[in-house]
Write a structure and sequence with these properties.
By secondary structure, the protein is mostly beta strands. The protein has a single domain, classed as Immunoglobulin-like (Sandwich). It is 6% helix and 57% strand. A six-stranded antiparallel β-sheet has the order 1-2-6-5-4-3, with no helix packed on it. A hairpin with a 3-residue loop joins strand 1 and strand 2. It is globular and about 30 Å long. 18% of the residues are buried.
């Protein structure tokens, strides 16, 4: 698996405190979120946070920061490049 270089200005971090407070930096886009999962596009690819009673308390895609409250049961990275298309392009190809 080839590593993609990450520049200092596009750094990605994931911090989980006591499985209840999650902070993600380097977020490009929020795909979807509900009480059981939060799907994000980060500078390192797609990221899914799974759990119970999840709530997005901070959503700042301009700064690339998302804060999630709730009990985290799993984190999954998908090896895909960050999406560069808007919502309309994904709907209509």
């Amino acid at each position: 698996m080839a590593e993609r270089p990450i520049t200092e200005e596009k750094r990605h971090t994931l911090t989980i405190g006591a499985r209840t407070a999650t902070r993600v930096e380097g977020v490009c886009e929020v795909i979807s979120f509900d009480e059981e999962s939060v799907e994000l596009v980060t500078v390192c690819g797609e990221l899914t946070v799974e759990g119970e009673s999840l709530h997005v308390s901070t959503l700042d895609t301009e700064r690339g920061v998302v804060v999630i409250d709730g009990r985290v049961s799993g984190v999954l990275y998908h090896d895909t490049a960050p999406r560069k298309q808007g919502l309309r392009a994904r709907w209509f190809g």
